[in-house]
Structures are given as structure tokens and as C-alpha cells.
Design a protein that fits this description.
about 120 residues, alpha/beta, 3 helices, 5 strands, about 30% helix, about 30% strand
């Protein structure tokens, strides 16, 4: 199940559990592709486009106070573009249950939504 919510960027951990450190996984070409993707999305945001929601799941980070944060599951480039654009909140789908796995948005259409046409 997934629900939509605008979430403060400061409440989102950009890396899912077990996400390898970029130095362990990415070579220079792969890192460049990630950067180019984030910059492409950023240019769409600056032109008035909207960002499709990233995928997150709730995680309790303080059991004493039951404080929750969110862990990003999918949408790293969209997350980075939102941070670079100065946004304070980011559109998110909060996944739960069996759907709450890294890469859960694989295969969905996730490009920037074009700016709304002037009426």
C-alpha cells in the first residue's frame, strides 16, 4: 500500500538500508550518469516542471519518543534535484508492507511533469 505526503527533506534519509557507499559501488562513469540525471531533473524543476514523488518508508529512529523518519527507497536523482533546487519539502509515496523495498518504483514513468500550459 502507498499513500502520498509532502515530507520535509530533513526528515528523509537519502540511502536505503544496505545501500553501498558510492566508493564501493560506483565507478566514475556511473557517478557521472547519476549527476547528469539529477541535473536534468533540476533543469525541469527550474523551468516550472513538477517532480514525481519519490518512494519512502517510515522508520522509527527514537523508540523512547517514537520519533519517525523516512528512508528513501527509490528516486535518488529526484531527491538530489529537489535538494539542489532549494525545495524544503518533497512529494513522496510512503510505502508499507511487502511493497516497501528498494527499487519499488522500477518500471514506472518517472520523468518530470511538464509545466502547466497557460490558459
Amino acid at each position: 500500500m502507498k499513500t502520498f505526503k509532502m515530507i520535509s527533506i530533513s526528515e528523509i534519509n537519502p540511502f536505503d538500508d544496505g545501500h553501498p557507499n558510492k566508493s564501493e559501488l560506483w565507478d566514475e562513469k556511473e557517478l557521472e550518469m547519476h549527476n547528469e540525471g539529477a541535473l536534468f531533473i533540476l533543469s525541469g524543476i527550474r523551468k516550472g516542471g513538477e517532480v514525481n514523488p519519490i518512494a519512502v518508508r517510515e522508520r522509527v529512529v527514537d523508540y523512547f519518543n517514537m520519533k519517525k523518519k523516512y528512508e528513501r527507497l527509490d528516486g535518488y536523482k529526484r531527491y538530489c534535484a529537489c535538494v539542489l533546487s532549494g525545495m524544503t519539502k518533497i512529494p513522496c509515496y510512503i510505502y508499507s508492507g511487502e511493497e516497501a523495498t528498494p527499487g519499488c518504483q522500477y518500471g514506472e514513468e518517472l520523468w518530470n511533469i511538464p509545466p502547466k500550459e497557460a490558459a
